[in-house]
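sanity check both lines:
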Amino acid sequence: MTHSAPPTQGKTPAGGPGPDDGPTQRPGLHMGRVLGVPVYVSPSWFLVAILVTVMFEGQVHDVVDRPLSYLVAFTYAVLLYGSVFVHELSHAVTARIFGLPVRSVTLHVLGGETAIEREAPNPGREFLIAFAGPLTNLVLAGLGLLAHATLALPDVALLLLEALTFANLLVGLFNLLPGLPLDGGRLVRAAVWKATGRSRSGAIFAGWVGRAVAIGCLVAGAFLATYTTADGGIGWLALLWSALIASFIWVGATQAIRAERVRDRIPLLSARSLARRATLVTASTPLAEAIRRAHDDHAGAIVIADHDGRPLGLVNEKAVTATPEHRRPWITAGELSRGIHDDLTLPADITGDDLLDALRRAPASEYLLIEPDGSVYGVLAVTDVDRTFTGI
């Protein structure tokens, strides 16, 4: 289970919270809204549902004849992910109680993820949001044990109850493992954040612990594969599953560490230092001539302007590159430009988070940078901003 927040927070084979930046594609099939939160199911879930059904059917067949046993096994798969969904919803509800907007809840192959738009403002709230998911699973497991001890149930209902009780116990405890992107990692992050006063220190520490947890999962899977009998089938399945979980945790932990390194560079971003010198041409100027002038000016961008020098549009770099050289004398620069509106015009002195927020508000490939006196300073290309974070 995982939860995300700017930067994205993640979780385990069950769920957790986290935010992301800017508009994103839908993470799966939209199933509706619960408490105002969009809920998605990744297509990968259906593969897991089939796998769980086939694996659990053997136990169900001991008490129910086929083909009904397959229906009961599929019911278990649905109820299992119902537990994951409640886990994720716990993160979402807790975050909203603290005033943090929740983008979505998604169920996928390894459990679920809750996307939270903003990071918790303090370690106490971070702790409570992260702990809400595992606590919910442990409460469900406790209720399952209570029902098992007090209710007289038919064999099929008893089998489902026992399986779901064990699954909730496993999910709850697993998500408490002390490493990102698991909920336990967020608890560690909150604790280190509280002790040091720096959320970055908590995230880096929890990320490295997460990498250690990933290695531990892989070693545990190898141990089970070596010592589990039953013709080796269960053992190799355990190894495959542990490798999948280990890779998930390793990637999530690595992303958490990288996110902090990215965050370190954000204050250093400066539109002025990243800007390309711009050559101003009229819309009727042939593209070949506009490129020649830019070359003479040692400029990296072309801006369309009127005869008084007022900027009207930005020539798209990709469109220029895609235009064959023999056609450039016959195409005007204006044909490859897009009009300039307020969101594509930025002050030349914009920096850091303000710069990134402006780019997220109006995604584009180029932005016009304007001096305080209204004159054109240059053009900011998103590829140059991205290059700042390359190799982190």
